[in-house]
Amino acid sequence: MTAIVLFDGECNFCDSSVQFIIARDPNGYFRFAALQSDIGIELKKKYRIPEKLDGVIVIENNKVYDSSDAALVICKNLKGMWKVFYPFIVIPKYISDIMYKLVAKNRYKWFGKKDSCTIPSPEIRNRFL
């Protein structure tokens, strides 16, 4: 069983986040696709993900998680102490999304933007859809 992380392939912060996840997911639970890729576009259509959602999105067990919920689902499945953050899933989404939306809104300004997605190394290429 695996989960899919959809991410903004042009965002430096999102790219760093994907690398962070890979380093803490030795069993390969997460697979990845850029939102701008053909498979990302297909998955957005299949799961009826609104166009306005352009940050990190997790698809796990045919359920879509976005914003802070996506981040917490990722934490739940990482190696190490990151699991301790998952209980925050009980906080109402409108509250937990405040910080997430602040970073998401400013991610290009703060972290920059790329012209294209990073090409994964051969060791992790099979984790990208």
From TrEMBL:
This entry's Gene Ontology molecular function terms read: protein-disulfide reductase activity
Q: Which domain of life is it from?
A: Bacteria
Write down the InterPro entries for this protein, in alphabetical order. Answer: DCC1-like (IPR007263), DCC_oxidoreductase (IPR052927)
Extract the Pfam families matched here: DCC1-like (PF04134)
> Which PANTHER family does the record associate with it?
DUF393 DOMAIN-CONTAINING PROTEIN, THIOL-DISULFIDE OXIDOREDUCTASE DCC
Q: What name is this protein filed under? A: DUF393 domain-containing protein
Instruction: Give the organism, scientific name.
Output: Psychrobacillus vulpis
